[in-house]
Amino acid sequence: MLRRISTVVLMLLLVGCAWFRAEKPPGEILKPTPMGGYEQLSTRIYYPRTIREQGVEGTVTIKAYISLDGRVEKTRISQTLHPELDRIAENAVKRTLFNPASRDGEPLKVWIAIPIVFTMENWKDKSSPFRSFEIKVYPDDAYAQYQVSLTGKLKADLNYPVRFELLLPYNAERVWNENKTEQFTPERVEDENGEWIIFQATEPDFSVIFNYKPITGVGEKQFHYQFMLNHALPDWRLSMVYDSGRLNFRDEPDRVSEEADGSHRYTYDMEPLAAYESRFLNVAIQE
Questions:
Q1: Which residue in 8, 67, 74, 194 has its CB near the most CB atoms, within 10 A?
Q2: pLDDT by residue (tens digit) across 252-282?
Q3: Is 33-118 CATH 3.30.2420.10?
Q4: CATH code for 130-286?
């Protein structure tokens, strides 16, 4: 009798230990979400005027493979609409950082599908957050290196911080700003257009500066930059500032003036720029 009781107790202990060691059933997977929410993702989308005028509307669905740290490693277009809108949607997803998927607190790599709707009913042209905007280009004597300064004044009634995305030239090297009151640590993200810097402005004085790596093997001495910004611009200016007056511009500037340091400034007045609309700044210079 004592042996039977001991056997039953042992079996109960073994069963109890087996239950105690058994793995819990896996929890539900929490899907990845864009940093700042889908509203933040929508700020990367633009709807070109030429395509709107064609009456093109509909949905583009992007499948994205999200890494353990929330970066987009791969994308696929699973539902197409228009070649340009497909590219815009895919590039917007590529430039987005996500809160990664997780299960039981552990991050996971997963694919997600993101539908992006283009509809004229909900589309509104974005008003510019700028009161003024200017690009200054400083070439060196050999036209092998450039420094580019983007400055502006933001409107006082904005909800700060304001998020910006700026397309860099293919051979940009260092990026900084001269505002002493805010830390400037932009994120650099690549897509099909090139490399973007993503940053936030916290005060009305807007300042971003970058320099080109030395350019070699370029036949023509010219400044060429595909300028794209995620916010609309008012009337703005492009200025070439050079320390010599012996230059002939292929496109005659609107104004020529002399800076305090004796350098010459050649200014081009530019039209308002809609959100994310491409603009090639191509100023050829003949000595």
A1: 67
A2: 899 999 888 888 899 999 998 888 888 888 8
A3: yes
A4: 2.60.40
